[in-house]
Each structure stands twice: as structure tokens, then as C-alpha cells.
Amino acid sequence: RLQGSILVVAAGNGASDNDHGVYDLFVHFTNLEFVHDNRTYVMDNIVQVAAVDQAGQLASFSNYGRTKVMLAAPGVGINSCSSLPNQFKTNSGTSFAAPQVAATLAMM
Q1: What contacts 8, CB < 8 A, 6 or more positions away?
Q2: How much is the pTM?
Q3: CA dihedral defined by 97, 101, 57, 44, rounded to 10 degrees?
Q4: Cα(63)–Cα(50) distance, integer angstroms
Q5: How far is the C-alpha of 67 from the C-alpha of 76, rounded, in Å?
Q6: How far is it, in rounded angstroms, from Cα 30 to Cα 48?
Q7: Predicted confidence (pLDDT) per residue in 12-59, tens digit
Q8: How many beta carbons lie within 10 A of that of residue 88, not counting itself?
Q9: For the chain, what percent of residues have pLDDT higher than 70?
Q10: What is the DSSP letter of 17?
């Protein structure tokens, strides 16, 4: 872990509680402990991001968690690039919410 670094990750789109059960190995990095050279390290610099809708409510697909999911950002109906030239499309997901949190944290 680099001092002062923060890793922002999408919480996932399985409508699951990330505090319980196994959703995906990647989203369970929060407070991950690992051992190296007989020392235990805790990664406490990871922020999982849920998605909210236009009303500020948790999106129906968004993963959540009281202890592991730290923040939420708009993630429903987000305009995005299309594979077609000069066109946009609307997408939803925690992957569209996470960059907004990353940008906000970068400006702090």
C-alpha cells in the first residue's frame, strides 16, 4: 500500500450484501489481511461504491453493505459512450458510480 493512496471499486450489481456471503473476490478486498515476511498487513484504503437512482435511493441491482460499502453515487441511467461513432447510450451499474467517487476523492 502506498501512503495516501485510495483504491475505489464498484460494489457489484448482484443486489447482495457484501458484508455476508461471497459475491466476488474483488469486492471483498476491503480490510483484507495478508501476511508477508511474518508480518500481517491490513488493506484499509479501499472504498466500495454502491449505485443510487435519480431519487437518491439504492439502485435495485446494487450491492450494499453496512461495513464494506462506504459510499454511493449516481449509477442509474448514466450517459456513456457507444460503440457506434458519435453516439451515446444510457447504462446503469456500480461501475458507473465508482468513477464519480474516485474523481471526488482525487479533488480533496
Answers
A1: 46, 47, 49, 98, 99, 101, 102, 105
A2: 0.78
A3: 110
A4: 6
A5: 23
A6: 8
A7: 999 998 887 554 444 444 455 555 565 655 567 888 899 999 999 999
A8: 10
A9: 76
A10: B
